[in-house]
């Protein structure tokens, strides 16, 4: 795939283009910058953030990540394991029990269904929720379909500190659901979460370490009929490519400066509510989707689901199961 100027495009996962300073526990405020997030206009049309928004929009246009906001569910992510983590595990760890007002940050909010239906109810004393996604289409959909007066949706890139720095040291709770595996360098996401949190603030992250979905794409890559689609496409996440596990993520978080309160990796099975929901979900996150010719999409989708069922060891096609190795981690920024 080439751009208009003839350059090859890197497709697939979010990849930062430059290195940023090492994480520091000390707050630094650049001269002339607003010092409180509640004073900022975060809308894409805001002059103060026009440069950042244009930069993010360019990243999307270059095809570094492709998700379909129309197909992606407007409801919470359709996995029971996500619901259990948010509604059972986090309350057991004390989330939602603070007597102080909370300032929440939802990284990778998508169209906002999980934010409004599962995350917000955790916080009876919520002051504000800042929900961000790298895709403008997701944010537009969230504003339209999942509005809440306590949520401020905006475009931002978890791997790019320049799009997040106005939130520095002002977040009490950071949540990210099925976002970190999209990052080319997940460590950058953990580092930026550390910088966003106030001292004593906590982050809850759940993401995919290994998935039959990506294994399916690997197998289809070996089929000559589809091989050309995979040229210049980085479609396997770092976690799966290097077989990173919970112990690796725990050490990484500790090296950054976090205290690890809870860490678990486990193979989990989720059930889709309908065949349409399953097809729409996987098709919406398929990085190859925009590059498959319209008359080949049905054949690609059919083969994809057949290979996926084979890898999930599903003999009965009516069993709408998905098997993944999932990371759940809750970490705390020390109180200095």
TrEMBL record:
<comment type="similarity">
    <text>Belongs to the methyltransferase superfamily.</text>
</comment>
<feature type="domain" description="Methyltransferase type 11">
    <location>
        <begin position="106"/>
        <end position="204"/>
    </location>
</feature>
<dbReference type="InterPro" id="IPR029063">
    <property type="entry name" value="SAM-dependent_MTases_sf"/>
</dbReference>
<dbReference type="InterPro" id="IPR051052">
    <property type="entry name" value="Diverse_substrate_MTase"/>
</dbReference>
<protein>
    <recommendedName>
        <fullName>Methyltransferase type 11 domain-containing protein</fullName>
    </recommendedName>
</protein>
<dbReference type="GO" id="GO:0008757">
    <property type="term" value="F:S-adenosylmethionine-dependent methyltransferase activity"/>
</dbReference>
<keyword id="KW-0808">Transferase</keyword>
<dbReference type="GO" id="GO:0032259">
    <property type="term" value="P:methylation"/>
</dbReference>
<keyword id="KW-0489">Methyltransferase</keyword>
<dbReference type="InterPro" id="IPR013216">
    <property type="entry name" value="Methyltransf_11"/>
</dbReference>
<dbReference type="Pfam" id="PF08241">
    <property type="entry name" value="Methyltransf_11"/>
</dbReference>
